């Protein structure tokens, strides 16, 4: 029973793994109550934490003598407005995640730490006139200053402290101060927003389908409508975005654009900067804390007309809501896979509904969930069936590699076509979603295999750095000179992108090859440099992973090849076939985007597989309808709702014992319309030294699942085995691994 209080009660969301909020008293030395949506510093146990005020009350369930006052109010006005607070509160409830951690996820790191919500600007380092004239070698006994001055002279552009640190692999501040004192370098504070001084480029003429899509979206700008913009790769979806955004900006409102990965941000940003003469804020994990804070605050103030960002940008505040766009809406990267496991696409739709603005979901290969929402009448379907600019669709062909000689995953027919396209002055893209040199290092004599001692997985051989690396837990070790068991030579089995790159250099020594994957693009700026080399024609053969398949425009690529199409055909994950179809279409879309026709080759050991035949003969739409029919019959999403309870522990039995107790606790609640499957070991039972198991909940009606979770999850911490495991719940999981 709540007890009334003469002093107002502050309800504060504190970032701890505890559901709900905490009650506090106002600070005794502050005349005004902190606003709802403002940050406060509070005592929590023996430490102090930064929380967000979510409400005021006149009563509390906690006795008044146990209530503690806050330490200080950090914001004079709300950082998070009422609509965004309501969205975050809803998300915490829907995804069954602690409210304080959800609130923290919506804030930049600097604000979570209690730093002032003030735009500081980003410090850039530039050469003075003396710095441009000075020979770096003339600096006596100062190798770091010499290297720093040479770097600035070579780059001939302003660089941030973070960029200097990345380039030099050391903290440059001391050397930088010395160069400033010598009058060779100056430091200026600039805005984090990107804007070009040149007039915007003129808009190209739209084809009929593009014009129809623009008109439909513009007609809905005064309220909420969900639009699914389905367009074949190269159909001009970005041009539709741009022309709608110009209309939104003309009305004085802001736009939020979400992309699934950092790799897509620079390309989209370049397109937007060339066409929009307004400040653009960028939000992604590649920024340092100062850059992220600056962009976040500029979005909140309305100074940034457009905000482009990855998954977490869905929480970016704005002053004048106008439009939300989710590009590549099918991409699983939009779902957070740890901690607060939200789906940015679904939250974008919910936010648009609450803010009463339209949302556009764009993709060449829409998620089956989105297509089902079209069928239910929840989204409006806009179609761009042809490529923009008159480019023709690429020709797709299956290469049956059964009984074929394969050289490092490359068949003879594929090698012949690569040679022909190179001689015809085209570029070639090869896709293999496996990093490293070889996925296994084995001994042919005794059968020894380089396994990860922490996971049920093999170590991947990275020949370039002479290391074995587990792609699941990150464990690394050196490569044995010989078999540890019998001292015979070791050999790599299977192909990764590194090995394919080596084979391509051997087959085509006259043509430059570039590899684009997470290993080759670790350094800041490496990806942008590689992509620029592709667009300029410096690189003629591209080999890479998923990073290459997403959204990039390579107008000179005339041949795209998928080296292993069979990986997704026989997976235990019911979404694997959908992802394979999306990958094939996305990779195919990289070919023939310019004036020259494209060709797509798909190597497979199963050329008669129904998925591949449907996709090639009738297209993604026909595949999607067949897949939806299968999902409906199997009672799987989008015709059912799922929640996955994961448990892990160092002891092999502990996860199973906990999940069995959880299953029994669920049964005792007698939830209507909810079925539990398991517990069962995870597909990879041991990962990073911990054993993992799953319990899957399935319901035909989402409301039944939500009711069951609400009454069941609060009991789990009290189960006998709960303290022996780490457990989490994933609502609407996209990965059952």
TrEMBL record:
Transmembrane segments: none annotated. HAMAP family: PriA (MF_00983). Zn(2+) 1 binds at residues 443, 446, 483, 486. It is an enzyme of class 5 (isomerase). It catalyses: Couples ATP hydrolysis with the unwinding of duplex DNA by translocating in the 3'-5' direction; ATP + H2O = ADP + phosphate + H(+). Residues 218-384 form the Helicase ATP-binding domain. Its EC number is 5.6.2.4. Pfam families: DEAD, Helicase_C, PriA_3primeBD, PriA_C, Zn_ribbon_PriA. This is Replication restart protein PriA. PANTHER family: PRIMOSOMAL PROTEIN N. Residues 478-634 form the Helicase C-terminal domain. The gene is priA. Keywords: ATP-binding, DNA replication, DNA-binding, Helicase, Hydrolase, Isomerase, Metal-binding, Nucleotide-binding, Primosome, Zinc. Initiates the restart of stalled replication forks, which reloads the replicative helicase on sites other than the origin of replication. Recognizes and binds to abandoned replication forks and remodels them to uncover a helicase loading site. Promotes assembly of the primosome at these replication forks. PROSITE patterns: HELICASE_ATP_BIND_1, HELICASE_CTER. Binds 2 zinc ions per subunit. Its cofactor is Zn(2+). GO terms for cellular component: primosome complex. NCBIfam families: priA, PRK05580.1-1, PRK05580.1-4. Belongs to the helicase family. PriA subfamily.
